[in-house]
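Below is a filled-in request sheet from our internal design queue. Each sheet records the structural input a requester submitted and the sequence that came back. We keep these sheets so that new team members can see what a complete request looks like end to end.

REQUESTER: design group, bay 2
PRIORITY: normal
MODE: inverse folding
CHAIN LENGTH: 232
BACKBONE (tokenized):
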């Protein structure tokens, strides 16, 4: 077998330095300028690939949100990925939440992803449903007021970005939304309740991606193929 392309799905880039953060990925990649390399070669980010894989044709404006261990966020604005001046655009999970003092892996306290991601659900399960598999948390405890509040917080956070950016499409995926019996219809409804009427509320198209645990690997391969084909 001959290997034609190799793609690596890597998280944990430092948006300030465009370098790999030490301690979050393999030690051999510390301080490697992978983020700037990817941008220079127009490689698609894993979360951005959610948009490309879900829609048959790329729109002018779309947002991908991926609640998992943290909160992935990809911005496709005016026909291209938007990274921001310093490479840190789309860090919705690090918006501060009033009254929240929980520590975040980024080093700050009170970041939104500490109460809207898989980390929070994991701690909740360990403390209150230790006998329930994490994947079945919503199946057996979906009516728990704390889990209901979690869904509402997530909806409010997502709606906040939608009201700021007003995209045509919102693509939702990630491990949290893939959990068994996660209330997707409730999440959609609560997002819509917080959208500004009439334009954003009536115009936003919300799509749930069929991504799996293999999406990152598949996206890295597609990005590598795209890069090497363009170089031929």
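RETURNED SEQUENCE:
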């Amino acid at each position: 077998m001959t290997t034609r392309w190799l793609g690596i799905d890597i998280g944990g880039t430092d948006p300030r330095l465009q370098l790999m953060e030490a301690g979050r990925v393999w030690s051999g990649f510390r301080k490697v300028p992978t983020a700037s390399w990817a941008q220079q070669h127009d490689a698609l980010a894993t979360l951005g690939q959610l948009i490309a894989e879900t829609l048959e044709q790329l729109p002018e404006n779309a947002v991908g949100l991926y609640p998992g261990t943290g909160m992935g966020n990809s911005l496709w604005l005016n026909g291209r990925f938007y990274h921001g001046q310093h490479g840190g655009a789309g860090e919705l999970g690090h918006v501060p939440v009033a009254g929240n003092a929980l520590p975040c892996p980024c080093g700050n306290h009170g970041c939104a992803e500490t109460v809207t991601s898989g980390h929070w659900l994991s701690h909740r399960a360990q403390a209150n449903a230790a006998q329930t598999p994490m994947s079945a948390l919503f199946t057996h405890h979906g009516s728990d007021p704390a889990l209901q509040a979690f869904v509402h917080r997530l909806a409010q956070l997502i709606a906040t970005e939608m009201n700021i950016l007003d995209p045509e499409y919102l693509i939702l995926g990630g491990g949290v939304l893939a959990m068994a019996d996660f209330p997707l219809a409730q999440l959609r409804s609560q997002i819509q309740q917080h959208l500004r009427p009439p334009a954003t509320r009536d115009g936003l198209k919300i799509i749930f991606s069929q991504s799996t645990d293999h999406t990152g690997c598949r996206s890295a391969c597609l990005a590598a193929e795209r890069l090497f084909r363009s170089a031929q």
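SHEET NOTES:
- The chain has two domains: 5-54, 62-229.
- Strands lie at 13-14, 19-20, 62-67, 71-77, 80-81, 169-172, 205-208.
FILED BY: M.R.
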